Amino acid sequence: MWRWLAGLLVSVAVLLSAVSRPVSAAPDVVVGPQGNEPVTGAVNPLNPQNVAVAQCTLRLSTDFGRTFPITVNPATPPGYPRVGIGCDDVLAFDSQGRLFWAYLLRGDLNGDGTQDDLTVVVAQVNPATGAIVGNAADITPGQFSDDKPWLAADATPGSPFRDNLYIVWTRLGGGSQVMFSRSVNQGGAWSAPRQISAAGEGFVWPSHVAVAPNGDVYASYHSDTCGAATAQMFVIRDSTGGANLAANPPVITQKTSFQSAVTCNVQDSSGDEVPNTDFWMQGALAPYVVPDPVQPGRIFVIANDDPNNTFGNGDDGDVILARSTDYGNTWSISTVSHGPAGTLQVFPNGAIDQNGRLVIFWYDTRRGQLNGNNNFLLDLYATVSVDGGLTFSNDFRINDTAFDPDVGAPCRFGPQPPCQTAGDPVQQTRRIGEYNGIAAADGIGYVAWTGNTFTGTTPTGQQIYFDVFSILGTVTDRFEPNDAVQPGVATNLGAHASYAESGLTIHSDTDEDFFRVVALNTGKLTFQIASNGRLSDLDIQVRDKFNNVVATSSTSVDQNNSESITIPAVAGEPYFLRVYASPGAPNPPNQFPPLNVYSLTITNTSASVPFGLDLTADSDSGRNNADDVTNVKQATIQLRLDEAALTGVPFSPTADAAIADDAPGFKVGVLRNGTLAGFATRVAGQPGVYEFAFPPSTPLVEGTNLITAQVFIIDSSDDPAVAGTAHAIGQGGESAVLVVTLDTTKPATPGAPDLLASSDSGGVDDDNVTTVTTPKFTGSGEANALLRIFANGKLVGQGTMTSSGDYEITVNPLADGVYSITAQLEDLAGNLSDPSPALKVTIASQSLILPGTTASGGATGPVTIDLAAGTIAGYPGIAGATGKIGIVGIPVVNLAVNGQALTILGTPTGDGLIYTPTGEQAGTLTHSGSAQVITFSAVAGTLTLDPLGGSDTVTINGTAGADTIAVQVTSTTTVQVNSLKTASLPIANVEKLVILAGQGVDTVNVTAFDTVNATVFVDSGEPTTNTPNGDILVVGGGSPRARIQQQPGGPNPGSGSITVSYPQTTGNQTRVDYSNVERTQTSR
User: Fold this and answer.
1) FRET pair for 307, CA 20 to 30 Å: which of 373, 640, 726, 984?
2) What is the DSSP letter of 621?
3) What share of the chain is helix, strand, coil (3-state, %, to 5)?
4) Dihedrals phi, psi of 759, to nearest 5 degrees
5) Is the N-terminal amide bond of 908 cis, ω within 30° of 0?
């Protein structure tokens, strides 16, 4: 009787998720310490990142099994005398994510320090932290040798027995019995162990238990293990949630069987040894029950069988499937491994995912590789069924490196230690672990097996490996066969803006998929596949229509769950996508298996349309650098481009006219009036901003330029049969139009400015003499142009012409003086006209000098000052209609009369004119009611002071020195101070003539004629202290007939009056009143 003290176990309850962040792509993963013990694994159904693996110790991962940072040692039930561990771990999650761990402990019940008990323990573990929940439970109390437990949880939420726990094992000693127990309160209590195997069934080892979605419990075991080649595999069904099996005695209502057996391969020269193998095969007799989660009543059992029932002859092990569609009442048997005749397929196991996809795997010798002992190396192969076990895929290899079962294998039987060459003959049965484990979920298979440890490339021992593969990847997709680029083979996907396809597969070591795509739009094509990179590394490659490789996503095995390639694409051009397992043909894959399921997405993105075209400020000449009117022929424009839509397509920087041989990528072309002018360049430091300067070969043209831009795409295609390079070229959409006006013609010369009448003050609104220091000017010229006003060449004002070509501009403040006012136009493009003819303008806010440098020129005839009108006449060249100069409001008026006569006219309402002679031809005039001072010079002709009508007084001032003033009173009265300029007055218009001699010793001579009546007032100033030498007034008649009467005395000293009358002739009389006169004289 064989006694198995430590076997290998891998749970079929693993539920790894393919959709939620798969584990990283890598070769086979070492998951546990070195050794020959079984390994088991499970995944939390509520959190697929939470993975548990056990091999004598429990290891937990929260990152999909990339790392296992938490280690948990087996817990001891309270009071149990533990002396060691027996391993045989098994794990199960229930429907609520609770983790249960079953294992063997060795005990010393007798207390003598030696093992006398091997018991089954179940503990609940916090799957996130590793903490033991509550106490571990000894479910086989008493002194027994219990071996190889298998634990199952009813993890189906809809089951009537949800979260029940079931466990089976083999009790050794005094024969062998398959035992059963259950817990209906999540491990809080366990039913008493019950024997469910029958007497007389031989060595019943090992056993297995599983739960169907409806709550049915299936327990299975092998009879007469290591016995007859026609031994039976028993399957028991319990539909009571284990209640019947836990009863005393157990109630078994359904028990069926089928034939299945292989040799245990004990090396004892009995003739049942498998050639070229020394390892113990007792574990290969395990039956693995797999209920179908999709089809009620469909049950599978995976087993190992010698097809000719003759151990050591022919095929010594095939993988068989017992299939039932009636809840295990009847069975149909089929061989599902497909190894060549004479090869060994051994240690099978199987699992099924939630969608009913069945996977089976095993050790295989079909590659015929031998070690130095002439023994076979082992590989791991698998097959898949997606139709309920009716048909299976071709077998495929899983492991990366073959397993040498002799290296590091302890002896199970034979001369030892060590298990090497000893005895004669040498007969060693090596132990490599009795079981391998498998699980399936979401179309992915998860497997654990025994392989080698290595020093460098040399195998040195044994350890547990883990890997994953795609179940769905074994199935050909709807496009197969499409494994070549040739027409009729590559899948033609046509032309679409976007295309998506899921469920595509790489289904064999040699499979690769080709797709033909035609670009619908010029822009870019993005090819992307998504797969579980942990299963195998898929890569993609794009080729042009000439089968040139354009781009490859990767050239080595990586950890990517997606691969993407973006290429520049031209509408109407075909491109080919290749999907393959890296490194792929012509190199054989180095991934085992390369199987995978992928989704394909192809997006054809149109090239971005440029926007924001604008003439740069430096190129936009003229007064407005944003009006797109310029005189710069080689102007620069700036534009923007949404580069996000072209992500993945490189910028092709060359800018020559021939672009078919440029680097593949995109350019931004600039068009002028529909003709390509050149290509824009990127602006450094400003993503998405481009500039283009019109070259001498394609400058802006006079007038309107319609500027647009569009993206040019240069793809990577090139015909190798044609010399040179000729890529396909396409264009994206054209931008909105930027209208740029080129104007290099200068505006017509404007006319001379005209002083606005409202700004031409002084009483005459067209004499260009004004007191306004900020006058307004008007004129005409080119519409919308900028007009600048210059005064003596200095800019003093500017403004914009109206749309009708007029302007009215107020200039900056001007000081008094004479200015040459000119105008100059600048059009929208910045072209300048010639300066206009000048307008002479005099600013006289404080004083006016005539003629000075004014436009009048010197007087050429008599000059007249009209105080009533506020004008001066007699200066030629005045622009106004009257030819007069206005002086209203000018405080000081200075006249140079140029030797001409000067007449000063008063107002008709009465005046007070005051004349002060200052030279022989010069003098000053003021008048009452006005602060204005009029000075004049160069009066060679007569100076006439005419106050006109009204009550008028004319005052003649002497000097501050001794004056001799001669007054001739007649119809045209004259007054001369010394030799200074004589004033002539029409005495009829003068009501009072005043002579103010002023200081000094003055002599005033008044001669009155009989032609007029007049009143004269003489003031000789304050009397002097030397009276005899003081002022003297001499009054005389103009003829001997004059009568002179003197009336001395008056209100002031030296005052009085003298009357000269002509009673005998005209009767006229002149009265001379005086004041401050020390002496008077009369004469005829």
Assistant:
1) 373
2) -
3) 0, 45, 55
4) -95, -10
5) no
